[in-house]
Amino acid sequence: MTDQLDYQVTVEELSALMKRTAGVHVDPITLQQQADDGFDTFGLDSLGLLGIVAELEKRYGLGLPEQAERCKTPADFLALVNGALKTGV
């Protein structure tokens, strides 16, 4: 369980999840540079984000906060998810 709590989702991993779960290809460097832009800028809709949340919950055996599904930007999403992974909430 300690490993889960120490884990942080990176921009690179988010980019890979976007491609794998939603079919949206975004270069990690572009995603990092435009992390405050809306997910819709990258072509990711709410259903795609839901798939990413589900994948992370399955991977870490941890229910993420409901707000994760409503994050508007990659920066907000990563901050929320990483905070939840760190605290185990």
Automatic annotation (TrEMBL):
InterPro entries (UniProt xref): ACP-like_sf, PP-bd_ACP, Ppantetheine_attach_site
Keyword Phosphoprotein belongs to the record: yes
Annotated protein name in UniProt: Acyl carrier protein
Domain Carrier: start-end pairs: 8-89
Keywords, alphabetical: Phosphopantetheine, Phosphoprotein
Annotated TM spans: none
Family matches, as Gene3D superfamilies: ACP-like
Organism classification: Bacteria, Bacillati, Actinomycetota, Actinomycetes, Kitasatosporales
Span of the signal peptide: none
